[in-house]
Amino acid sequence: MKFQTNLAWALIEGAKPHLNVLERNYVFVTTGADDTFAAIHHLLKLIAVKGIPLPPSLVRLYVTWLDSYAFHDEDRHLRRLIEGCPGWFRPTTRAARLSGSGSYQHWSRR
């Protein structure tokens, strides 16, 4: 899963200035050990909690990756996390908003 590994490293790079030493070490070691799902999941929680801004191009990569986990046990939880990030995503359809799944689009607060 080269795409997943590249995404993990890109998220680390985007979030790194906002992470403390322990948080950085965890995501570096987890990604280096090829447990990229755990690293991405942990990074997303940190990004959501800390309100870390990411560039739209990285957000699009994340959504592409998340769509590949549509039926995974963590899908709904991961989508809820990104909905809580200011300036990130909102569901594009009413059905997606109600179900917690579906396609998402990047948006920004005005």
Concise synopsis of the structure shown:
With 110 residues, this protein is mainly alpha-helical. The chain has six helices and two strands, in the order αααααβαβ. Helices cover 62% and strands 5% of the residues.
Q: How many individual domains?
A: 1
Shape descriptor reads globular
**Total number of helices:** 6
Number of DSSP strands? 2
Cα distance spanning the termini:
37 Å
Poorly predicted spans: 90-110
Work out the radius of gyration. Answer: 13 Å
Order of helices and strands: HHHHHEHE
Note the main sheet. Answer: 2 strands, antiparallel
- Quaternary state of this entry equals single chain
Strand order of the biggest β-sheet: 1-2
Strand content: 5-15%
Q: What structural class do the secondary elements suggest? A: mainly alpha
Helix content: 55-70%
Mean pLDDT: 78
Protein traits:
mainly alpha; single chain; two-stranded antiparallel sheet; 110 residues
Question: In terms of topology, how is this protein built?
Answer:
Blueprint: H1 2-15, H2 21-32, H3 36-50, H4 56-67, H5 75-83, E1 89-91, H6 94-99, E2 104-106
Antiparallel strand pairs: 1-2
Helix pairs in contact: 1-2, 1-3, 1-4, 2-3
